[in-house]
Amino acid sequence: xxxxxxxxxxxxxxxxxxxxxxxxxxxxxxxxxxxxxxxxxxxxxxxxxxxxxxxxxxxxxxxxxxxxxxxxxxxxxxxxxxxxxxxxxxxxxxxxxxxxxxxxxxxxxxxxxxxxxxxxxxxxxxxxxxxxxxxxxxxxxxxxxxxxxxxxxxxxxxxxxxxxxxxxxxxxxxxxxxxxxxxxxxxxxxxxxxxxxxxxxxxxxxxxxxxxxxxxxxxxxxxxxxxxxxxxxxxxxxxxxxxxxxxxxxxxxxxxxxxxxxxxxxxxxxxxxxxxxxxxxxxxxxxxxxxxxxxxxxxxxxxxxxxxxxxxxxxxxxxxxxxxxxxxxxx
Length: 331
Prior knowledge:
- The chain is of the alpha/beta class.
- It has helices at residues 16-26, 54-58, 77-86, 106-116, 144-154, 191-196, 212-221, 252-267, 289-330; strands spanning 6-12, 39-46, 64-69, 91-95, 100-102, 120-123, 126-129, 167-169, 187-190, 227-230, 236-238, 279-280.
- An 8-stranded mixed sheet has the order 3-2-1-4-9-6-10-12, with helices on both faces. A 4-stranded mixed sheet has the order 5-11-7-8.
């Protein structure tokens, strides 16, 4: 194998079934418009009570490299940096949560963005499998078994775009693609930019990395050498696996508060979503049109809100200017 342009990093912990689905969705047998030699997938698994089947990974078509680590902490940050040290590509894909399946055009369009400019940062919108976000699933009878039946019912390996049929928008981008994203769980960027932002800051030591994903996306999006491309017709789909913030647990709000505190501490300021306006890239499959329609509606509402706010600011400024003119006339 010659040196690939792209290295996709996938971090795994205690999710063998879900992670294998993710790897299948990254394989050249599933991804469209690319060759096996175009990219490699680096899988780093932090040892757990349920590790992946190494033989199943080896049987996948494509260039997969698997590493099993004994991680003393509870964060994926060190595993990300370990994977980055193994990466051969000049372009890096980051999937911190190995439970995210992707649609068949993700690799093709990420590489297309890179070929347009070396400053490309390709962003894949996020979704949750099921009718509701997964932190609200368990009380509504949703389970891993139910999810497996949903996946079997759409025969996703033959047509991965049908994942849109059994999903809902992620809370990280609840208004669709015409609003600023809070985070991205499938992100592509130049390797030098990733190095420049400090890679994965290992001070994010909370379970699951805490708010590391938000931190990385913000740092990358605001970097002076990135141009954002939104893969509007693609998606990364979160599978139920008992994740730190995607589980229905009593202490969830406490966990989120601690994550926000650590994020503010390490950023040195309160977190705000980056407001970069991306270039839209790729085709929109029919199964994703309902999300595009919703995004357009929410986007129009956003534009109207902004216009009204600007008009109010202009009127306020005109009122102040008129008051100054009157005061000047009186003197």
